[in-house]
Design brief:
By secondary structure, this protein is an alpha/beta fold. The protein has eleven helices and five strands; from the N terminus they run αβαβααβαααβαααβα. The protein is globular and about 70 Å long. Bound molecules: adenosine-5'-triphosphate and magnesium ion. The site of magnesium ion has 3 residues, from loops.
Length: 267
């Protein structure tokens, strides 16, 4: 069931109807953690092979509300993976130079090269989310972006990049608990931001923006996965399952050795 939380192109949905609680899908946390660890070993082996093959590319996009768990997911899921074959990019408020270009410029520059896994912590979707909610550009500018994004992702998949997109779906109650935790726990204080509290006031607007973005940009070549993310252990498990499943489908192969190695003696 690797694609249990995958959206179907053209099929309407309401985010409020999609679960944020994962435990209903996998009640046994210990078993989930055991499976997660086993899957992580598989991920490490598949990534080694993808890197050695040096042909295909995998792009993994993470979007979420603040405290939605993007950082934690990346830290936990990719633990032990050869860092040489993975590049994580975090997209913040665009710089002056980035703003002087089209919004996909900074994105396209860092999509994964052959053999690589690219991980996006936020992405081009910010340009139809935060930008829409806070009226940074008018609707006449952001609305055509859905189709532009679909075409951009089509270009990527047509040229050998598998694209996986995960929305980490948390409840507003869970977000509040995580904010509180960031306040209470000294080692997490640095993660607390007043700006996040401000953005929380726009929760419903963000949900509406996410709903439309996920709907408009679920294509046969790059569908969204809406991950129940209130329980971190379920989130980690189901995301790793989907990544491993995708890598297995990509079926990377170690390259053939250069010539016949059987007669070579190393002394
Ligand atoms: P953390 O979870 O650690 O807080 P973060 O991804 O929220 O990580 P921040 O530096 O706190 O990182 O915030 C980045 C901010 O940049 C977010 O508020 C995001 O909405 C904003 N941002 C990203 N892309 C764009 C964009 N294209 N236009 C405007 N704002 C953007
Ligand atoms: Mg933040």
């Amino acid at each position: 069931m690797p694609h249990k939380h995958q959206l179907e192109p053209g099929r309407p949905f309401t985010l409020a109807d999609l679960p944020t609680q994962g435990k209903q899908f996998f009640p046994d946390r210990d078993a989930a953690e055991a499976e997660f660890k086993a899957l992580r070993r598989e991920l490490i082996e598949l990534q080694t092979c993808l890197y050695a093959e040096n042909k295909q590319k995998l792009l993994i996009v993470f979007q979420a509300m603040d405290a939605g768990g993007k950082d934690g997911t990346i830290r936990r899921v990719f633990r032990g993976v050869n860092p040489q074959g993975v590049r994580v990019h975090s997209f913040k408020v665009p710089s002056k130079i980035e703003l002087a270009h089209d919004y996909l410029w900074r994105i396209h520059k860092v999509v994964p090269a052959k053999g690589m896994i690219g991980v996006f912590n936020r992405s081009h979707y910010e340009d139809v989310l935060v930008v829409r909610v806070h009226d940074i550009v008018p609707e006449s500018v952001w609305r055509p972006r859905y189709e532009q994004i679909n075409q951009f992702e089509k270009l990527l998949t047509d040229t050998g990049t598998a694209v996986l997109k995960f929305f980490l779906h948390i409840s507003p109650e869970e977000q509040l608990e995580r904010f509180q935790d960031r306040l209470d726990e000294p080692s997490k204080n640095w993660k607390f931001s007043l700006e996040d509290l401000e953005k929380r006031k726009f929760w419903d607007d963000y949900m509406a923006a996410y709903e439309e973005a996920l709907q408009q940009c679920t294509t046969p070549w790059a569908p969204w996965h809406v991950i129940p993310a209130d329980q971190k252990w379920y989130r980690n498990l189901t995301i790793t399952r989907t990544i491993v499943h995708t890598l297995k489908q990509m079926n990377p192969q170690y390259p053939e050795p250069e010539g016949d190695l059987s007669g070579i003696v190393i002394d």
